[in-house]
């Protein structure tokens, strides 16, 4: 625990320092509206990074989340165009179910057939992207194809906070509860930390895999509708490459690619960090050509810091070393 | 004596590809009694444990518990039927807390199916107290030492409140005091009417705690009875299938001049003040409990990890080893303990594995010579009598014993001056074991200096010219072949003047 907490404190301090530093260059950046805007913008990343985190906890990876999001978004937009009367609750549910179905495909291939997650999700990424083109007949759906209520929902506010942020808050609370308060949630740490030991405890990998890819799919599906309605457009390439940003948020937040290590708070801080960097660069007049390179460099720096923190320490064999470690726990 | 067994295994058979692990084995456990399961490595003891804990399913045969036929399809089924186990390898979760490790898979819940953290931590603390642990329940497991982790494993087995407790070498990493504590726990479990299956290589322990014994050899049941009716010598004979004195082909070899001198080798957490001298033609044994720092010391010598203080001299010249490549060039070879992970590249063939550490010898202007590789592979493979269809056969198609021979061949191909063997016969069959021992003796007689790390007392006593005993990262005692007795070695290794045996 102390190591993780220390990491979160460290990351939190960096974020605070970053915000203050940018505030000196561009005071407009630190106004409440601007900060709330960043949170709203980063809501997708919060939700998707948590979904990715539970996959990574089991030593997996889901590269298909952004493709899933685009596919579920397109299908939902098509359904809404066909049935303009559909209530918003049903639209959200439908989008989530589309995502769930695509997630189950991943989970089944990985859990039942034992194919490595990176191979499966790289394949389904291409399949889902391709299918978007097929189901939409190659056309783009713009805000003209969507009903006003379909478009209005993500912009609606409650207590001055957009529905997008509210939904993200619910999803975050759900993940926190699941990972910290349920047996299944803790079991994810077990299968990722040591699959053999988990088996000895009666926890098999396959059902856990099916579960995490299904959850990742559902969250992607939910984000599909929200994304399409927020930006008022659905086409093949939406959220193209976003899976890499999502994975980067996890890694910056201290999720170990080797599995079994990661916290909700760490991942959220990782996502927030990226959200701030992406939003701040244009504000401080960094050329768009540089922005991608700078984001990349920052991600690399964060990974290096992580790797150093995880550096293997020696075993505690000498009695004096054990005492020391015990005292500093 | 209670005559009604609580658990009965009948006609149990288990087959693995190419290996018959168990054949028509029967066994019974009685409430309030400790049954010792005896057998050499590879005799089928672990398979029995894995069948009883639901990790393997037997191909044939029946398990009855309390008179009811059982069929375990997962470890969960096993503990629901009242069987729990302390496993030989500590199978645990480094990044979780001690309490989570103890209750993983059966965490206590409160309303709403939520984990009851308070209750869990409190119950874990109670269990830890009952095993006399000196750490809290909310510490991360990776902060603990090997012996402490073992206590967690014991606490986990107790957490199931099982009628049947399996202990697979529970003392291999414990100190004398901790072993005494464990025996108190066993006495209490017996008093509560639980049945215990106790697996150990140490006869003093078996004779101290067990009421009954069952012996396996090569996967078959070769005998059983009451402990009070037998003597250790008879049991050994039954286990090995021949008198023990014939097992070790130790040759009388003239010990030559010093080759390797190590003075004050230290590392901040793993070992301290390790000093010894290794001579030409000598087999120097390193004995100790699992986790006593033997492998770590050797890994530092071999450049896998770093020593922070100390001097290493090879033939009088001080060595600065900062990588394994340095060590290999200097003439040090290390055959690691974990064959599958550290020793072999399983999808590679025998030839590729054999030449892996000495590729430069088979290279001409940067291009590998297959002919030269084949020559050395045939030579060493033949000498070690590796049993394989052909020299290109993939390692994962060979038995453990033959894999180990290939690992040894790989290091001999580097023409070393010093060969470090870390548990070279762990988990390999009796035949291969004898071949490895024979070969070790031969190498020494050719003037190679050998360091043998082993946790098997007979092997160390049978093969080594001198024996260094390590405890908690330090050499606490050394014996010549003549003065070594099993009792003295074990006393030193378990850390003390007060010996655990009765």
Strand fraction of chain B equals: 25-35%
Number of domains of chain A: 1
Q: Numbering strands along the chain, what is their spatial order in the largest sheet of chain A?
A: 1-4
The most extensive interface between chains reads: A-B, 36 and 48 residues
- Fraction in helix of chain A: over 70%
Regions with little confidence, pLDDT below 50 for 5+ residues of chain A: none
In quaternary terms, these chains amount to heterodimer
Report the top-level CATH class of chain A.
Answer: Mainly Alpha
Secondary structure elements and pairings:
The complex is a heterodimer of chains A (329) and B (502).
Chain A: H1 2-25, H2 32-57, H3 65-82, H4 88-113, H5 117-135, E1 141-142, H6 148-152, E2 157-158, E3 161-162, H7 163-181, H8 183-193, H9 195-200, H10 205-231, E4 233-234, H11 242-252, H12 264-283, H13 288-309, H14 319-327
Antiparallel strand pairs in A: 1-4, 2-3
Helix pairs in contact in A: 1-12, 2-7, 2-10, 2-11, 2-12, 3-4, 3-5, 3-10, 4-5, 4-10, 7-8, 11-12, 11-13, 12-13
Chain B: E1 7-16, E2 19-29, E3 34-38, H1 45-52, E4 60-65, E5 68-70, H2 75-80, E6 83-86, H3 98-103, E7 109-110, E8 114-115, H4 117-130, H5 146-159, E9 164-168, H6 176-191, E10 195-199, H7 203-209, E11 212-217, E12 220-226, H8 232-240, E13 258-266, E14 274-279, E15 283-288, H9 294-301, E16 309-314, E17 317-318, H10 324-330, E18 332-335, H11 339-343, H12 350-354, E19 363-364, E20 367-368, H13 370-383, H14 400-412, E21 418-422, H15 430-445, E22 449-453, H16 457-463, E23 466-471, E24 474-480, H17 486-493
Parallel strand pairs in B: 3-10, 3-11, 6-9, 9-10, 15-22, 15-23, 18-21, 21-22
Antiparallel strand pairs in B: 1-2, 1-4, 4-5, 7-8, 11-12, 13-14, 13-16, 16-17, 19-20, 23-24
Helix pairs in contact in B: 4-5
């Amino acid at each position: 625990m102390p190591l993780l907490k220390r990491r979160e404190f460290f990351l939190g301090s960096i974020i605070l320092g970053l915000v203050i530093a940018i505030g000196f260059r561009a005071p407009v950046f630190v106004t409440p509206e601007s900060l709330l805007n960043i949170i709203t913008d980063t809501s997708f990343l919060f939700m998707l990074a948590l979904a990715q985190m539970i996959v990574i906890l089991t030593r997996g990876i889901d590269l298909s989340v952004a493709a899933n999001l685009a596919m579920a978004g397109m299908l939902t937009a098509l359904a809404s165009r066909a049935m303009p009367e559909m209530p918003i609750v049903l639209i959200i549910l439908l989008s989530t179910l589309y995502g769930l179905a695509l997630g189950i495909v991943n989970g089944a291939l990985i859990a039942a057939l034992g194919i490595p997650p990176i191979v499966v999700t790289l394949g389904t990424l291409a399949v889902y992207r391709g299918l978007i083109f097929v189901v939409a007949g190659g056309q783009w759906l713009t805000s003209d194809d969507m009903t006003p209520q379909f478009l209005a929902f993500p912009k609606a506010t409650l207590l001055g906070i957009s529905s997008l942020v509210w939904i993200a808050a619910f999803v975050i609370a759900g993940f926190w509860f699941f990972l910290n308060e349920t047996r299944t949630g803790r079991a994810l740490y077990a299968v990722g930390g040591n699959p053999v030991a988990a088996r000895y405890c009666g926890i098999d990998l396959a059902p856990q895999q099916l579960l995490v890819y299904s959850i990742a799919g559902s969250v992607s599906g939910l984000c599909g509708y929200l994304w399409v309605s927020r930006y008022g457009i659905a086409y093949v390439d939406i959220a193209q490459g976003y899976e890499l940003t999502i994975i980067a948020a996890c890694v910056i937040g201290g999720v170990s690619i080797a599995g079994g290590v990661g916290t909700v708070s760490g991942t959220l801080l990782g996502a927030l960090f990226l959200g701030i960097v992406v939003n701040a660069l244009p504000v401080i007049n960094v050329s768009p050509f540089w922005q991608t390179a700078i984001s990349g460099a920052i991600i690399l720096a964060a990974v290096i810091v992580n790797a150093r923190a995880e550096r293997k320490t020696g075993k505690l064999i000498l009695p004096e070393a054990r005492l020391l470690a015990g005292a500093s726990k | 004596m209670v005559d009604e067994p609580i658990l009965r295994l009948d006609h149990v058979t288990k087959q693995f590809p190419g290996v018959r692990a168990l054949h028509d084995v029967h066994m019974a456990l009685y409430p309030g009694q400790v049954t010792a399961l005896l057998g050499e490595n590879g005799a089928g003891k672990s398979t029995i444990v894995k069948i009883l804990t639901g990790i393997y399913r037997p191909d044939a045969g029946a398990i009855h518990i309390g008179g009811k036929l059982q069929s375990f399809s997962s470890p969960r089924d096993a503990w629901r039927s009242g069987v729990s186990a302390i496993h030989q390898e500590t199978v645990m979760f480094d990044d979780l807390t001690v309490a989570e490790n103890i209750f993983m898979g059966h965490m206590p819940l409160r309303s709403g199916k939520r984990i009851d953290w308070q209750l869990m931590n409190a119950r874990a603390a109670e269990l830890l107290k009952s095993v006399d642990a000196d750490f809290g329940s909310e510490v991360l497991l990776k902060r603990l030492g090997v012996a402490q982790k073992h206590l967690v494993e014991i606490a986990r087995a107790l957490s199931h409140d099982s009628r049947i407790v399996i202990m697979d070498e529970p003392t291999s990493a414990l100190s004398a005091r901790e072993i005494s504590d464990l025996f108190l726990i066993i006495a209490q479990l017996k008093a509560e009417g639980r049945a215990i299956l106790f697996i150990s290589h140490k006869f003093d322990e078996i004779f101290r705690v067990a009421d009954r014994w069952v012996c396996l050899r090569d996967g078959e049941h070769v005998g059983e009875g009451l402990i009070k009716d037998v003597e250790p010598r008879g049991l050994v004979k039954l286990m090995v299938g021949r008198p023990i004195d014939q097992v070790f082909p130790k040759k009388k070899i003239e010990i030559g001049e010093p080759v390797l001198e190590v003075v004050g080798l230290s590392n901040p957490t793993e070992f301290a003040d390790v000093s010894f001298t290794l001579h030409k033609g000598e087999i120097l044994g390193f004995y100790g409990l699992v986790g006593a720092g033997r492998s770590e010391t050797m890994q530092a010598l071999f450049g896998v990890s770093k020593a922070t203080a100390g001097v290493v001299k090879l033939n009088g010249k001080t060595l600065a080893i900062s990588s394994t490549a340095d060590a290999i060039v200097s003439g040090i070879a290390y055959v690691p303990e974990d064959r599958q992970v550290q020793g072999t590249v399983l999808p590679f063939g025998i030839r590729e594995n054999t030449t892996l550490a000495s590729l430069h010898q088979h290279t001409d202007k940067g291009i590998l010579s297959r002919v030269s590789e084949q020559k050395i592979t045939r030579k060493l493979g033949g000498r070690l009598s590796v049993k394989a269809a052909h020299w290109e056969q993939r390692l994962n198609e060979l038995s453990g014993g033959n894999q180990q021979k290939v690992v040894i061949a790989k290091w001999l191909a580097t023409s070393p001056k010093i060969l470090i063997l870390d548990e070279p016969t762990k988990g390999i069959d009796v035949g291969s074991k004898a071949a490895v021992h024979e070969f070790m003796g031969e190498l020494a007689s050719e003037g190679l200096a050998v360091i043998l790390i082993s946790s098997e007392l007979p092997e160390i006593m049978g093969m080594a010219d001198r024996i260094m005993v390590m405890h908690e990262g330090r050499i606490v005692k050394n014996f010549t072949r003549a003065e070594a007795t099993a009792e003295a070695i074990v006393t030193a290794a378990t850390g003390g003047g007060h010996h655990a045996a009765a």
